[in-house]
Amino acid sequence: MSLQCPDCEAEGSLEIRSTLQLQKDQCQSEVTLQIIECHECQFSGLAVFEEGRRGAGDTRAWKHTGYRLGETDLNYVRELILACPKPFDPTCDCLAHSQFGICDSHGVWIGLAGFDARGSFPIRLNV
Ligand SMILES: [Zn+2]
Ligand SMILES: [Zn+2]
After folding, report:
1. Which of 9, 30, 74, 117 has the smallest count of CB within 10 Å of its CB?
2. In terms of C-beta distances under 8 Å and separation of at least 24 residues, what long-range contacts does 59-64 make, across chains too?
């Protein structure tokens, strides 16, 4: 998978460095957190891939959004993800999984609440 950097816009320069798969019974969507880094410029950020579980028929709604986080927040998220022993196991109960796998009473994912997101951008795939 090759992604386009929102800063330098070089095609295929953005790489997914770490992944954390989240999925809780009380959530309406399957969420994957990704640490993204550009190897052309210094950009790094967080990407969130959300896929709805209750779409009608075959239409599974999904969205892939990038977030600009402050350096402290981003380092914190990165450290938690790297410390997870089972990043692809949604039932893992490590700190990262319990902190980011949160949904409100309506099933809406709120795992990034409390972080200082400085803006978001759509993730563009280069096919
Ligand atoms: Zn870049
Ligand atoms: Zn974990």
Report:
1. 9
2. 64/122, 64/123
